[in-house]
Design a protein that fits this description.
With about 290 residues, the chain is of the alpha/beta class. The protein has 2 domains: about 140 residues, HUPs (Rossmann fold, 3-Layer(aba) Sandwich), CATH 3.40.50.620; about 130 residues, Rossmann fold. Helix content is about 35%, strand content about 25%. The protein has 8 helices and 14 strands. It has a 10-stranded mixed beta sheet, with helices on both faces. A two-stranded antiparallel ribbon has the order 3-4. It has a two-stranded parallel sheet with strand order 10-14.
């Protein structure tokens, strides 16, 4: 299997500790992959007034704000931990943070790294409140890290929680590349729940086929029973002391997201462990009780 190359890592920042932690993690990955970091800050233009049906902006105030933000970005880009990495700075006025994934340059990113406050819930600051939406909308993988993990990020045990169906096969090479960067051991995980149950023989067969396909000789195969998939992923990860969770998300938005929610978001919000999510277009087969063919 050929390793996936990363060229651009997107890191949104609002200059909080949460965003700084994400940048430190991105710097470690960029140094290993020779990637460029796109450091992005979005801000709202200050309104001066409203006349003749047109919004008016305070040009002098805008200039002052831009200079202050540029100075802060320059300061961050020259910190010791990031000196070995190429950093491009983007200052986007009146740009919704969760829409940076649509920017002409930034949409070509190979990875997005963002901060979250982890088990205590999504942060209420700019970054934390938008992390959920970016996970749903981004076409590239999104790595979310807690604000206290920046200096400690060096995964050695990676849990790959999956259905092991369909498009997961297409996305897994990036997960494998990521694990190889840090010399991490991969733990393949299928979670059984009362509403989505698969017998052990069939689960083992599906996971083994996946393992053999990617020649994962050292990877472990695991089937874990719990009340929900979120609980199963978190409880298993904590049991083996995992320091990274990788899993798929279906990118649901709008009413569909409200009804179905997102397992990946729930895990990212409650596990306290960094999580690498990747989007797939088609969900796995419908939940239900599945028995192996005899």
């Amino acid at each position: 299997m050929q390793a996936i190359k990363m060229k651009r890592i997107l890191v949104p920042t609002d200059f909080s500790d949460c965003a700084m932690s994400a940048l430190k993690v991105a710097a470690k990955i960029a140094e290993k992959t020779k990637s460029t970091i796109s450091l992005v800050h979005t801000y709202e233009l200050p309104l001066y007034g409203f006349t003749s049906g047109q919004l008016m902006y305070d040009g002098e105030q805008i200039g002052k704000i831009k200079q202050e933000i540029k100075a802060e970005l320059q300061k961050i880009a020259h910190m010791d931990f990031i000196k070995k990495v190429k950093v491009e700075q983007f200052l986007l006025p009146d740009y919704s943070l969760d829409h940076i994934v649509d920017h002409d340059i930034l949409k070509k990113s190979d990875l997005i790294v963002m901060g979250t406050h982890g088990a205590s819930g999504w942060s209420k600051d700019l970054i934390g409140s938008n992390t959920e939406r970016i996970i749903r909308r981004a076409k590239c993988p999104v790595l979310t890290v807690r604000e206290d993990k920046g200096n400690k990020f060096n995964p050695s045990n990676v849990v790959f929680a999956s259905s092991f169906y369909g498009e997961v096969y297409e996305q897994f090479p990036l997960i494998k590349t990521f694990a190889d960067l840090f010399g991490a051991k991969i733990h393949l995980l299928r979670v059984n729940t009362p509403t989505d149950f698969m017998t052990t023989p069939l689960s083992e067969r599906i996971i083994k086929e996946f393992k053999d396909k990617f020649k994962l000789k050292d990877a472990t195969m695991n089937i874990f029973n719990d009340l929900t998939v979120e609980d199963g992923v978190i409880n298993f990860a904590q049991r083996i002391k995992a320091d990274l969770i990788a899993m798929e998300t279906h990118g649901r938005t709008g009413v569909n997201h409200i009804i179905n929610g997102s397992i990946a978001e729930e895990v990212a919000n409650n596990s306290g462990i960094p999580i690498l999510t990747f989007r797939i277009k088609h969900p796995p087969p419908p939940a239900g009780v599945i028995f192996p063919e005899i």
